[in-house]
Design brief:
The chain is 43% helix and 15% strand. The chain is of the alpha/beta class. The protein has a 7-stranded mixed beta sheet with strand order 9-8-10-11-13-12-17, with helices on both faces. Helix 12 links the parallel strand 4 and strand 5. Helix 10 packs antiparallel against helix 11 and helix 17 packs parallel to helix 19. The longest helix has 22 residues. Bound molecules: thiamine diphosphate (TPP). Thiamine diphosphate binds next to helix 7. Thiamine diphosphate (TPP) binds next to helix 7.
């Protein structure tokens, strides 16, 4: 490997001495490294392969040891990591001890923010640019954002502000006409039209020069001024972002190293709000990913030679709850024509692609716009429909106020299917679904459920669709237990007792029930006899059940795949206090109040004490204390 050009690159400064041909060679080497590393560990392949050329050119033109580079989402930062001193850690991408799959300031000063959610890059970059302005510094700021994220409300709010204050900010619009799936909506249509437009800024300049050369008197000049603008409009359509106060450039082929270098050098010479529109291809350089970028957006490990995905146990299990929820939803939607489904740019991940296929007229992909997804659901519900918003727990956070203001406050019957609830594994802290119970349970009238098995999932879905108010059902990135724990009908606010013992009670929520059952079975062999309850609901908590469990056991241990503050255990403590029960007998097993780094989901659960071993250990300690 000694002849790898990459091995001679120790910092972005080393790029300065490279020719265009060298940069092209380096891009190929980086693509090969990204592809082989993702083949081993999984990761965001298609987006990363698409921005290798851009990354090289950015690091060559700017000096991000003092300038700022903010990647939107951050899932496309692999080449950036490779170039900024993290090649060693990159070998163990997304695994314990290796680098994160997203920007991480703890890893490198080249990453200003820890990111993973879409749409925030322009806002945070603007803040950096204004801080530099306040300090009288000439450091430059660049945000790179995809065409998918650009339609996000947060991105548009930031653009509006940046144009208004005339900030010294370069926004690079990385247009590959894909989010995870093809981009949707009016902006996507507009960008498609712009793809075939002539270069905006260059041509406008030419038009101006032609008019300026005409020999005209002063009054004629004024008159022609108006015509000039009209002429400009006719020759080159004004870019929509010019209306925001940005000077726009492009489109440039993001895989043409020479053109990209030239454009970036030009961008560096300019000041003020400016936008460079580039076209890239997701998966560029690796045929399977270029052909099917959707499937290769976030890939699990694969065989590099043939692009065959490797079936690994965790990956096989990962979509199991999603599939089960979709099976039930599709069955219900066949009979109930009021059911409509909404995704925020995640038809594949949430399983709603199946719904879209079966009921195309009742399906809405709103783009990466969770706030709008929930507001839209409120309107649809008000109009008599039963909207189901399927969304990852971490991204539903974006719709917090719509859930309050447009939904809960109105008491509207929408159902949120909260997928990837709990620890998610390799994507790490930006993507864990650890907060949804806390942020959903504090509004009056909300019902919040978590199934432990397929029977509970089906029962909850049916109740939710017939309900008169807002519901959320949370489930993890994990396997559905092969058999049901009980066939007891699901009723709102009622738990199910799965086994009885006198020494203590494990009251578990959702996916934690399987763990509690396993721990109880092990402890039985040690002579410790436990009651195990599937709580089913985080709101309302089963008040009668709680009184009984606290009355007949020395302690109750709640178990949940959620952060401790404000979670299910907190709800149980509050319910105990509200009923005048002895809340001191309630103990909680939950994810600690800390950000949990990337690893496998099983390892994260174990580290949080939420595996069967950890629960058994907690029980032994409680038994020691109470005997
Ligand atoms: C708020 C939010 N919702 C959903 C996602 C999931 N997600 C990750 S990448 C992505 C697509 C991003 O598309 P685009 O901005 O065009 O970037 P590209 O991958 O095409 O480079 C989505 C929807 C997210 N990261 N953040």
């Amino acid at each position: 490997m000694a002849d790898r050009l990459l091995d001679t690159i120790h910092s972005p400064q080393d790029l300065r001495r490279l020719s265009v041909a060298d940069l092209e060679r380096l891009a190929r080497e980086i693509r090969a490294l990204v592809t082989s590393t993702v083949a081993e560990h999984g990761g965001h392949l298609a987006s990363n392969l698409g921005v290798v050329d851009l990354t090289l050119v950015l690091h060559r033109a700017f000096d991000f040891s003092r300038d700022h580079l903010v990647w939107d989402v951050g899932h496309q930062c692999y080449a950036h990591k490779i170039l900024t001193g993290r090649r060693e850690g990159f070998k163990r991408l997304r695994t314990s001890g290796g680098v994160s799959g997203f920007p991480a300031p703890a890893e490198s000063p080249y990453d200003p923010f820890r990111t993973g959610h879409a749409g925030a890059s322009i806002g945070t970059a603007l803040g950096l640019a204004l801080a530099e302005r306040a300090a009288g510094s000439d450091a430059r700021t660049v945000a790179v954002i995809g065409d998918g994220a650009m339609a996000n409300g947060l991105a548009l709010e930031s653009l509006n502000h940046a144009g208004g204050v005339g900030a010294d900010l370069l926004v690079i619009l990385n247009d590959n006409h894909m989010a995870i799936s093809p981009t949707v909506g009016g902006l996507a249509r507009y960008l498609t039209r712009m793809r075939t437009a002539p270069l905006y800024d260059n041509l406008k300049q030419e038009a101006r020069e032609v008019l300026d050369r005409l020999p005209l008197g002063e009054s004629m000049m004024r008159a022609i001024h108006v015509l000039k603008d009209a002429f400009k409009e006719a020759v080159v359509p004004e870019h929509v972002f010019e209306r925001f106060g940005f000077r726009c450039f492009g489109p440039v082929d993001g895989h043409d190293m020479e053109a990209l270098l030239e454009a970036m050098e030009e961008m560096k010479q300019l000041e003020g709000p400016r936008l460079l529109h580039i076209h890239t291809k997701k998966g560029h350089g690796f045929a399977p990913a270029a052909e099917k970028p959707e499937a290769w957006h976030s890939a699990r490990p694969f065989t590099e030679q043939n692009g065959q995905l490797i079936a690994e146990p965790e990956a096989v299990e990962a979509g199991a709850w999603t599939d089960a929820a979709m099976d039930e939803l599709l069955a219900m939607a066949t009979d109930d024509k009021r059911l409509v489904a909404i995704t925020a740019a995640m038809p594949e991940g949430t399983g709603l692609a199946r719904f879209a296929h079966r009921f195309p007229g009742r399906f809405f992909d709103v783009g990466i716009c969770e706030s709008h997804a929930v507001a839209l659901a409120a309107g649809l519900a008000k109009g008599g429909l039963r909207p189901v918003v399927a969304v990852y727990s971490t991204f539903l956070q974006r719709a917090y106020d719509q859930l309050f203001h447009e939904v809960a406050l109105q008491g509207l019957p929408i159902l949120c299917l909260v997928d990837r609830a709990g620890l998610v594994g390799a994507d790490g802290p930006t993507h864990h679904g650890l907060y949804d119970i806390a942020y959903l349970r504090h509004w009056p009238g909300v019902t919040l459920a978590a199934p432990a098995d397929r029977h509970e999932l089906a029962g909850m879905l049916r109740l939710a669709v017939d309900a008169g108010g807002p519901w959320a059902i949370r489930y993890p990135r994990d396997a559905v237990p092969p058999t049901n724990f009980s066939e007891e009908p699901v009723q709102v606010g009622r738990a199910a007792v799965l086994r009885r013992g006198k020494d203590g009670a494990l009251v578990a929520l959702g996916t934690s029930v399987a763990v509690a059952i396993e721990a109880a079975a092990r402890l039985e062999a040690e002579g410790v006899h436990l009651t195990v309850v599937s709580a089913r609901f985080a709101k309302p908590v089963d008040a009668d059940g709680l009184a009984e469990w606290l009355g007949s056991h020395p302690w109750v241990l709640t178990v949940e795949d959620h952060t401790a503050p404000g979670g299910f255990g907190s709800a149980v403590l509050e319910a105990a206090e509200a009923q005048g029960l002895d809340a001191r007998k309630v103990h909680r097993a939950a994810v600690p109040d800390a950000f949990i780094e990337h690893d496998t989901r099983a390892a994260q659960l174990a580290a949080a004490g939420l595996g069967a071993d950890g629960i058994a250990e907690r029980v032994r300690a409680l038994v020691r204390r109470t005997t």
